[in-house]
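pinging the channel bc i need a second pair of eyes. not urgent but kinda urgent?? the chain im working w is below, pasted from the shared doc
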Amino acid sequence: MAADTITVLAGTACPKAEAWGVFDPRVLDFFDHFSSAFRSSPLAGDTEAASFAFWCRRSRMEELKKRHEGALRVGRGLLFHVPPANVPLLFAYSLAVGMLSGCANLLRMSSRLEERGRLFCALLDQVLSRPEHAGLRARTGLVSYPRKEEDRTAAYLMEADGKVVWGGDATVEAMRRFPMKPGAVELVFPDRWSLCLMSEAHVTNLSQADLDLLAHRFYNDTYLMDQNACSSPKLVLWRKDLPDGAAARERFWAALERKAAQAYDLTPYKAARKYEALCELAMTQPGLGPVRRAGNLLYRLPLQSDGVDLGRCHLAFGAFLEREIDALEDMAPFVTQRTQTLTVAGIPPREAAGVIARLALPGVDRVVNVGQAMEFDLTWDGKDLITALSRVINC
């Protein structure tokens, strides 16, 4: 293993495996300083980066801290993180979770990290380099090295007290080949998919301004990440609370297409991949109806039977399944163990969550309003991340 194949993007290549308490004041100070530094950085105009900077502001960190008050908790030691390449800034949230749980952190960054990701790392390193954050810097590393150097990954994992793996089934399986300490913890995020539930009557009764706002929020949940995030809806279920809801559905999709036309960069690559996925579905999923589209920005695929394997419907870049249902209970056939997030419009989240709990459906770990699918929380995929990555001192 040649040391010169490692690129240190922030912090150090050899973080000190030193545990701190959860929500340590030094960590909260760091995020407060980072959030302030972000406002005058070249990334200030980037929507996704700004979302993280807003999420990690001091007031929000203090709110999250209150959830875990009462028990005495300290970090596990050193965590090895494998963030995904197709959700560009998810690594920042993974790092934040590790820091807040009191752990030291080493992130293996993708060699395909895009420019804004590198700028983000540079800003992290700039704030970590301040004298008051020397202790945190010594416990933090964001590094990149060739994936073929599996012996390096193996060495890191043998030193780690836990691992956090994002990126789907294949990545989880690949990382499980490497041995770890007998007491090491594992937090993994395999392939998941999400759906949206809307009331036809709600969409019909919206003013034009509110309809455009709903379309904007749905766009942020989906197009903004090319639907690559596990929380981005791929299926839209429509509750039939009108004699004929076709006009409501058309009204919403037209508003979404207008929003996409204004904001979405549909490159030739994206258009080709979307069409390729559509052709594959046509050959493998006979329960889908004919595609509805006015152009390449938006594809709608009617779900005509319950037998479609939703986990194999790899839709992205503005392609959605849709189906009408009579009542909330009728969502049951479309929920699997891999279903993560349900976004709702015109239906109270608590009401939808109550139906999911009453029916004991195998999936759906969170129910939020449309526009909140991408809002990261310290409970994710049904797991309390701070609890999973720290240990409690019972007394």
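so The chain has 14 helices and 16 strands. and The first helix runs from residue 25 to 38. — does that match what u expected or am i reading it wrong
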